[in-house]
């Protein structure tokens, strides 16, 4: 009965260890190039189960090896498993990767070999955690490591560890509580009979865990002492850039744009998929007021609640030629905002899962999605829209007769805008006699004057610096926010109404399907957090708001055309069309940077593309090595001490060796009681090992320490006694 209870206890403790280990696997999908981590969870559970059963090594190794083989076969090898061709592929892969490692070309390692190394690591961890949790009952160190790991990954990557920290705390408390209870039972030599008495200690343990967790979650907390630890560390190391430092953010759609600037880390988390006729920019909102540091929205009102089937908002007039099209969107669980993403010309939203209404901000175009009076996220929807086509001559001839309301709202600039920004705007548009060509001149200015697209090493303006001024004249490095904000400010400086717009680019095409009418094909695009983007809209009288794209590496997907019935102007409109169709491929920030790097140095691009995985792999290997060294510390420390013991024949070394033996015996469960003499303890040890070696070694030790006798004549015999006891204890 007692054995059964012990097995249940070990099973619970080991299960808790597995749950903690799972917290190490969860971030892999987001911080590495791992598409699906479920196979690693399954293999880890299998290894943990085999280790728990304490299957002999000559059976457990083949079982786990078969697991590795089946996983590699299913993921990478097309040959029949265990056939000559299968072994040939595996041998070729291993040989190639060993050569790459020996040449320190880590980025050349193949996915098969990386997976093989990771599976072997899971194999080793299953044994180490069994020893740590069940045999040694020392789980505090692993609990602490898990909390540190989650905190570091949450801080320096795109992984959100908020709930992971809570899970780790609760699981860790349970593990430490069970371990402490078992140690007290062993210490007092109490036999716990009958699981029906578990409530004596189980209920208080659960109560303490629940109370501690609830109190920690509900109690007020200090605001972050470091708004972002990365720039804090960089500044401490002397790595601040111009403008007083940098901030590292996670790329993605956010609502607070009052402080722009700083670097961000890429995030390829899918936000939604869109089935649509072609590349489309997905609009969310515009903002009107530039503060010198970022953007705020002073035009939130009026807000109109409307039926999704009849949307009154439009960015252009009826004078613009349009074509009716449809698109289907499907939001993922990672989309946290309760707003509609939509293409230009949206007229209705259908096929909604539930009763929704839209609260449309008439000025900004922001459309909040509601069910009743509560904000709610739309899962799937069919969008009907009038896709606009803008005619070049119409834009060039639209004039400057803007409504007073437009001028009041979209010519705003901060009073302290540096004068050199206004002077630059005048220089850029000099010689252009119409609004369209002036806007195109500003749009082309960045690509023609050495500006660099980058998401890293982007400065933040200081207290006395203007965001646009810093980008135009100091850094000339940045991403979409820098380019789009600068274009709006330059246009407003010349009296041209313009506004800043946020949303997503078209994403990556992943499939194509036949449309509902059966007479054409629509493309399926995956839009991720990395596709979050900002661009510019310029106002043209009698036309409305027209999108422009100043950011390098991105192309304007708006449709422009030339009316053949209209007499050509002195400047061939076809030339303007060529400017507008730069590149049909619209990338996200990560794609743009990769293309720039590839054009300059292909090897460097390959290396940087695998930096994240290499860092994770290196960190994992170092962590595993540290764990292995800690677990086996008594073995390698004993080996080192044996070598030293043999070379040095002095009483100090002898005393240290004897004390080390006592530590090893205590670690293995042969603890010396506080009131126990060395001779009584030596008798207990000899009874355990059925020998008299400990008593003989202790007798020599007492003569050396208390009798001041030299043992150099007995040194070889004493050394053998000590080595034998160490080996027996560690075996």
Automatic annotation (TrEMBL):
The chain crosses the membrane at residues 7-27, 39-59, 66-87, 112-133, 140-158, 164-181, 201-219, 613-636. InterPro entries: Bact_TGase-like, Papain-like_cys_pep_sf, TgpA-like_C, TgpA_N, Transglutaminase-like. Residues 472-552 form the Transglutaminase-like domain. Gene3D superfamilies: 3.10.620.30. Pfam families: DUF4129 (PF13559), TgpA_N (PF11992), Transglut_core (PF01841). Residues 569-609 are annotated as: Disordered. Keywords: Membrane, Transmembrane, Transmembrane helix. It comes from the Bacteria. PANTHER family: PROTEIN-GLUTAMINE GAMMA-GLUTAMYLTRANSFERASE. This is Transglutaminase domain-containing protein. It comes from Halobacillus kuroshimensis.
